[in-house]
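Entry 14: structure prediction run for NADPH-dependent FMN reductase. Input pasted below.
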Amino acid sequence: MKITIVAGSNQKLATSTKLAQYVQHLAEQEGHQVKFVDLYQSPIPFYSPDDAHGGHEALESFKQALHEAEGIVLATPEYHSGISGVLKNALDHVGQDYFKNKAVLSVSSAGGAIAVSSLTQLQAIVRNLHGINCPEWLSIGGDQRNSFQTGAAHSDIHPDVDKRVRRVVSSFLDLTKQLTVKQ
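Run finished. Output tokens:
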């Protein structure tokens, strides 16, 4: 299957991006094709309904990756009880054609215990774009973020966190497969 992962942080060493890279690793281990879009590395222009930004390389690549995907992972840090402005801006550039009937996994990293507000906001956006929210989501916070700090290897991930991430990614991939077969 084709999976697109969007890392929606504007921080070079974001733990949400590191977590998204681990999701990529797990999906690729299962033999899936993964396109990783890092909005820090490939910034997208500010959305304006007056300007479609046609031909902007990063925007066109982002749209193509979403369009071709059978499943989508959206990863964000939690800022002030919401998703990052960078991810919200990117999502404002696309409509239902990019998400309709596709499985979407919401992923977040928060400085506090858990990132419920950003995940709830992401799921509302996905519903409005006619995507199918994975019933589970991934959130790391507090000390759990240590597993995804710069320099940490996959073998450094805390066993409880690793078990949860693997279970949720497996559930997302199963949902993606079910939805892909129905189309």
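Notes: The radius of gyration is 15 Å. Will compare against the previous run tomorrow.
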